[in-house]
Specification:
lyase; 13 strands; 42% helix; globular; Low specificity L-threonine aldolase; single chain; 347 residues; 14 helices; PyrdxlP-dep_Trfase_small
């Protein structure tokens, strides 16, 4: 039985065309800056995000960790949303490796205000950690895929910079935000010290992210990349996949967003699914169960057995994610299976 996998957009696999591009890649030694395809990717992404330099990384998690290592010193504190990836899903790398504590801001949708950011910045003191960095996610992840409004994003940036903090954008799904709003990625990242995009989610690559910043930031990032074991040799094989995705998979993100809206439309017509105030603007759908005799974990197990895999979050909510590996027909089928699963467990 085929399972329609809506657990995450990381479940995408390379298309045949992407595999062909990888096979044709011109390669060299990345550590010696001799891989032409990797250089081309970094040049392209840095231009798209409006930075002078960039470095190819194995993962977005390494992008966040390396940015923290560059922007902070041990004993510092970074400010981020309480449900953000850097807070909840990176094995406490900021603390364990960078020695940075996290000061979480609790929000309804992953978007905090300039006033909330200002309140989180600590006054200097002998017994207080130094507030050193503000990190935001565009789009938010476990808070339901909300898009930071440009005005709010800029206000938070300005508060942080005025207080002497470094600023960082986790742009794992930045292109999803741009696809929805029509606002260019570089407009979102303007004035931020560092930002990155991921290629393994909606863009469908097997490996890779690109971290951008100033020339000096990227020099320091390269040192940490090497120390952490992230430096590669013939990385052009992976960079070729990312270049193919930039050419062929960005505009089609709109299809994923349409499929997310379709799934919500089908489930919302039933009394058993409750949606957060954050209606899906991109490809992430966050919802809860209502009036059923099973909890989120049990529902996920039963739905998977029936042919649809979604994700239960620690807070009891459910998340479904659309991506290039599922079609509109798959979404219609998934909705029917989720509804039928709910019917089985009405209280």
């Amino acid at each position: 039985m085929r399972v329609i996998d809506l657990y995450s957009d990381t479940k995408t696999t390379p298309t045949d065309a992407m595999r062909a591009a990888m096979a044709r890649a011109e390669v060299g030694d990345e550590q010696a800056d001799e891989d032409p395809t990797t250089r081309a990717l970094c040049d392209r992404v840095s231009a798209e995000l409006g930075y002078p330099s960039a470095v190819f990384m194995p993962s977005g998690t390494m992008c966040n960790l390396v940015a923290t290592l560059v922007h902070t010193r041990p004993g510092d504190e970074l400010i981020a949303d309480a449900e953000s990836h850097i807070c909840t899903t990176e094995a406490a790398g900021a603390a364990a490796i960078a020695g940075a504590a996290v000061n979480p801001i609790r929000t309804a949708d992953g978007v905090f205000t300039a006033d909330e950011c200002r309140a989180a910045i600590r006054a200097p003191g002998r017994t207080a950690p130094r507030s050193a960095m503000v990190c935001i996610e565009q789009t938010t992840n476990f808070s339901g895929g909300a898009i930071w409004p440009l005005d709010t994003l800029r206000q938070v940036r300005d508060v942080a910079l005025d207080a002497g903090l470094r600023t960082h954008i986790d742009g794992a799904r930045l292109f999803n935000a741009s696809c929805t709003t029509g606002i260019a990625p570089r407009t979102y990242t303007e004035g931020w010290d560092s930002a990155w995009i991921d290629f393994t989610k909606g863009l469908g690559c097997p490996v890779g992210a690109v971290l951008c910043g100033s020339e000096s930031f990227v020099r320091d990032a390269w040192v940490w990349k090497y120390r952490l074991g992230g430096a590669m040799r013939q990385s052009g094989v992976l960079a070729a996949a990312a270049l193919h995705a930039l050419d062929h998979h960005v505009e089609r993100l709109a299809d994923d967003h349409a499929n997310a809206r379709l799934l919500v439309e089908r489930l919302e017509a039933e009394p058993y699914f409750s949606f957060s105030a954050v209606k899906p603007a991109t490809n992430l759908i966050l919802f809860s169960l209502r009036g059923l005799s099973v909890d989120a974990d049990q529902f996920v197990r039963h739905a998977t057995q029936a042919g649809v895999r979604i994700r239960a979050l620690p807070n009891g909510k459910l998340r479904a994610t659309t991506h290039l590996g599922v079609t509109t027909d798959d979404i219609a089928c998934a909705a029917a299976i989720l509804i039928a699963t709910a019917w089985r467990y009405t209280a």
